[in-house]
Amino acid sequence: MAQMVAMPVAHSLSLICNWTKSNPLTRNTVALPPTNAPSKQSLSIRCARVGGVEIPSNKRIEYSLQYIHGIGRTRARQILVDLQMENKITKDMAEEELIILRDEVSKYMIEGDLRRFNALAIKRLKEIQCYRGVRHIQGLPCRGQRTKNNCRTLKGKKIAIAGKKKVSK
User: Fold this and answer.
1) I need a labelling partner for 104 at 20 to 30 A (CA). Which of 27, 37, 119, 137 fits?
2) Are 50 and 98 contacting, i.e. CB atoms less than 8 angstroms apart?
3) Residue 42 and residue 48: Cα distance in Å, rounded?
4) With left for phi above 0 and alpha for psi between -120 and 50, is residue 165 left, alpha or beta?
5) Weakest-pLDDT range from 31-40, 74-83, 89-98
6) Angle at 50 between CA 48 and CA 52, to 5 degrees
7) With the C-alpha atoms ordered 90, 94, 99, 103, is the resulting torsion angle positive or negative?
């Protein structure tokens, strides 16, 4: 194993290796080019975590909150009104404001709880075999849309029927 490590693998690797026979201590050392140490900057929030979701820091709060499942435009605006908070860019928010925002968002049913609630509601409809439940089972729209031409999202890709030909007049 030690022999494989000491042997240069690529041509570029052999250029940076110091193979001097004079000093046995520096024989198998690798000289790497000097790296610039990252300059120390102040700690900045890259992404704020609200409701279990990392919301973008370069957008205004109203639009950042919409990245959370269950919060749309209306609810995001309502949260800002309830908190009497100005709609500033997320990265400019103080930590205290983020804590207050997290507390307000936690009052709503969002993310996993909302997805679970909707899945259980659909499961209940399927179990009682009502019209909407049957349409969910069949993978068809359940709100009265026409299905002759559209609803490709639910029905899937078109399937050609063998032997069916168009009649020409």
Assistant:
1) 119
2) yes
3) 16
4) beta
5) 31-40
6) 110
7) negative
